[in-house]
Design a protein that fits this description.
Length: 570
C-alpha cells in the first residue's frame, strides 16, 4: 500500500478513514500470510490505531504499546508501508516496536505489563524537562492481569504526572483472558459493574471513561477527543472493546489459533503436542499430576489436559511469577506440578525459581518451550538465555532432550524425580527413538577412535553435529558425537574418562554460562583443548533460525573448519 501522510490522515473524511482501515487490514493479512506473525491481534486493533494517529500528534506525542505485537497498523501509518513486505525478515521490519526503526517507536516492548510503567517514566521526564506532549499507553486486557500493571498504577499518584491508558479489551491474551480482573472488565462491558469497580480505578488517580466500541470510528474518535480534554488535568483510563481477528471470519472464530501465524511452508512435529499427550497420560495414572500455565494453554499444547482434567489444570493469566509460586506450593503439599512456559517468559519468574522452588528443593518440573533461537519475533523472544540463568541455581537439574521421544521419556521419568527439574526444547522437532534416560548422564551417539569429540545439547545441535559429520567424512575425517542431554549436572564422569584431545561443545544458547562453561569447569585442570560454539554476548535480532545461526557462529562451515584444523594438528 502507499504511504499515508499525516496531513492525509488528519484531513480524511470518516468514509475515507473506514476505507483506510480496510486497506490496512488487507495489507496486514497479505503480509502475515507470507511472512508469519501476529495476525488476529493486529486485525482487531486497526480502527483503534487509526483513531489514535488521527487524535494525537505522533511522534511528538508518545505511544507505548504493551507487548507490542499489535503494532503492525502503527508501522504502516508511520512511514514504513513501503518496507512492510520485509516484516520479520532478517534486515527488515521487526514485528515489535523498535526505536532504531522509527522515531514513532519511542519505547521497545515485547513482554506484557510494561507499558504503563514506561508511560509514567516518559511523562515524568516530560514534566521535569518542562515539555508539553501527551503520553499514551495502549494496554490489552490480558496484560491487565499482570502484577507490573498494578505496581505502576500504585505509583501514579506518587509520581504526580498525567498519562492516557487505553485499555484494548478483546477478552483475550493468547488464550482467553481469565481471573478476577477479567470479571471486573466483563461487568463494565456489560453495564453491570457495581460502583466500586469504577471507584477502584479512580482511587489510583484515573478518570475512568468507557466502555466504547474500539472497532467503530464514529464512537471511538469522539471518545478520544474527550479523553484528551480530561488528560489536561489528570490521568485517564479509556476502556474500549475490540474484536480479535476483526474482518476475517475464521480469525474472529478462532483467535487462539490465529494469534500467531507461521510463515508459509513451515511445519513439522511440535514438542507442545507431545507435552499435552504425555501429561494427559501421566495424569490418568497419577492423581498428583497438575498442569500450570500463564495464559498460553493452547500454544503450549495443554488443551487436551485442560479438557480432561479441568480440576487439575490452572491457567493463571499473564502472571509468570505467581504461576511459579503456585507450582511450588502445590509441590509442597504433595502434588506434581508441571509448569509449561516459553523460555523468554520464564525469565520473569527468576526470583521465584531460585527461592520458592529450588530454595525449598520442591519437585516442580519446568517445561520450557521455544528454547534457543526462535527466529522472527526478535530480541525479546529469543530463548537463548535459559541455560545460562538456570545453571547457577543450586539443586536444579537442567535437561535438553535430543528429540521428542527423549522428551517424552524425561517427562515420564520426572514423576518419580524428587527434585526441581527444567526441560528445555525448541518448538519443532522429530519423533525419533530413545533408550533409557539416566538423570545426569550423557549418551554417546556416534563413537570412533578419533581425537575429536563433540558434545551437543539438544535436537538442533545434535542435528547440526551430524550434518558436520557427513561433510567431514567426505574429507575422510571422523569424530565422536555425544548427546549432552543434561547441562546441569554435566556428566563429569564421562568428560574425564574420555581421552579425546579436542573437545567441542554445541549449544543453542549464549556461550556465557551455558554448556561450554560447564564442560570447561570440569576439564579446567586437564590437557584437553576446549572450543565452544553458541551465540555471542549480544541480543539476537529477528530472522530465520538458520540465518541467525549462520550469522552468529553456530553453523556447519565454522565448525567444520575448526575440526579440519584439529585434524591437521593431530
Amino acid at each position: 500500500m502507499k504511504e499515508v501522510t499525516v496531513g492525509e490522515l488528519k484531513s480524511a473524511s470518516l468514509c475515507q478513514l473506514k476505507e483506510l482501515c480496510e486497506t490496512l487490514r488487507e495489507e496486514i493479512f497479505r503480509t502475515v500470510s507470507v511472512r508469519g506473525g501476529h495476525l488476529a491481534s493486529n486485525l482487531g486493533a486497526v480502527e483503534l490505531t487509526v483513531a489514535l494517529h488521527r487524535a494525537f500528534d505522533f511522534p511528538r506525542d508518545k505511544l507505548i504499546f504493551d507487548v507490542g505485537h499489535q503494532c503492525y497498523a502503527h508501522k504502516l501509518l508511520s512511514g514504513r508501508a513501503g518496507a512492510f513486505s520485509t516484516l520479520r525478515c532478517r534486515g527488515g521490519l521487526s514485528g515489535f516496536p523498535k526505536r532504531k526503526e522509527s522515531s514513532y517507536d519511542c519505547y521497545e516492548t515485547g513482554h506484557a505489563g510494561t507499558a504503563i510503567s514506561a508511560a509514567l517514566g516518559i511523562a515524568k521526564a516530560r514534566d521535569l524537562n518542562h515539555e508539553d506532549f501527551s503520553v499514551v499507553a495502549l494496554v490489552g486486557d490480558g496484560s491487565f492481569n499482570n502484577g507490573l500493571v498494578y505496581e505502576a498504577l500504585n505509583s501514579l499518584k506518587i509520581l504526580s504526572t498525567r498519562v492516557l491508558i487505553v485499555l484494548n479489551d478483546n477478552g483475550m491474551s493468547i488464550s482467553p483472558t481469565v481471573g478476577g480482573t477479567h470479571e471486573v472488565l466483563t461487568e463494565l462491558k456489560e453495564g453491570e459493574a457495581p460502583v466500586q469497580d469504577v471507584a477502584l480505578f479512580e482511587r489510583y488517580g484515573l478518570a475512568y471513561m468507557g466502555v466504547y466500541n474500539g472497532n467503530d470510528l464514529t464512537e471511538l474518535l469522539p471518545a478520544l477527543e474527550r479523553a484528551k480534554e480530561v488528560l489536561k488535568t489528570q490521568s485517564v483510563l479509556l476502556h474500549v472493546t475490540t474484536r480479535k481477528g476483526q474482518g476475517y471470519a475464521f480469525c474472529e472464530q478462532s483467535p487462539e489459533l490465529t494469534h500467531g501465524v507461521s510463515p508459509a511452508g513451515n511445519g513439522g512435529a511440535e514438542y507442545s503436542a507431545a507435552l499435552g499427550e504425555e501429561l494427559t497420560a501421566m495424569a490418568e495414572r497419577d492423581k498428583r499430576v497438575v498442569a500450570v500455565t500463564a495464559a498460553m494453554t493452547d500454544a503450549l499444547g495443554l488443551r487436551p489436559f485442560f479438557e480432561k482434567f479441568p480440576e487439575r489444570a490452572f491457567d493463571v493469566g499473564i502472571c509468570e511469577e505467581h504461576a511459579c509460586v503456585l507450582s511450588a506450593a502445590l509441590a509442597e503439599e504433595g502434588m506434581r506440578p508441571y509448569y509449561a512456559i516459553y523460555s523468554t517468559f520464564l525469565q520473569r519468574a527468576y526470583d521465584e525459581i531460585i527461592h520458592d522452588v529450588c530454595g525449598q528443593g520442591l519437585p516442580v518440573t519446568f517445561c520450557i518451550d521455544r528454547a534457543g533461537v526462535t527466529g522472527a519475533d526478535g530480541e525479546t523472544h529469543q530463548g537463548v538465555f535459559d541455560l545460562s540463568y538456570l545453571s547457577p541455581i543450586p539443586g536444579l537439574t537442567v535437561a535438553v532432550p535430543k528429540n521428542i521421544a527423549e522428551f517424552r521419556a524425561m517427562l515420564r521419568k520426572s514423576i518419580s524425580y524428587d527434585k526441581p527439574l527444567a526441560i528445555r526444547y525448541p518448538r519443532e522437532g522429530r519423533g525419533g527413538a530413545c533408550g533409557d534416560v539416566e538423570f545426569g548422564k550423557f549418551e554417546v551417539l556416534h563413537s570412533t577412535m578419533s581425537n575429536i569429540v563433540i558434545y551437543a545439547a539438544g535436537e538442533r545441535c545434535i542435528s547440526l553435529a551430524f550434518r558436520v559429520l557427513a561433510a567431514a567424512m567426505e574429507r575422510h575425517i571422523d569424530f565422536t558425537i555425544v548427546n549432552a542431554r543434561f547441562v546441569k549436572p554435566v556428566d563429569a564422569e564421562m568428560l574425564l574418562s574420555r581421552k579425546e584431545k579436542y573437545v567441542i561443545t554445541l549449544e543453542d544458547n549464549v556461550l556465557t554460562g551455558g554448556l561450554g562453561d560447564a564442560v570447561g569447569r570440569v576439564l579446567r585442570n586437564t590437557d584437553r583443548n576446549l572450543h565452544s560454539f553458541g551465540y555471542p554476548d549480544a541480543f539476537l535480532p529477528h530472522g530465520t533460525t538458520r540465518e541467525l545461526a549462520a550469522e552468529f557462529g553456530l553453523n556447519e562451515q565454522d565448525i567444520l573448519h575448526y575440526i579440519e584444523d584439529c585434524h591437521a594438528r593431530g
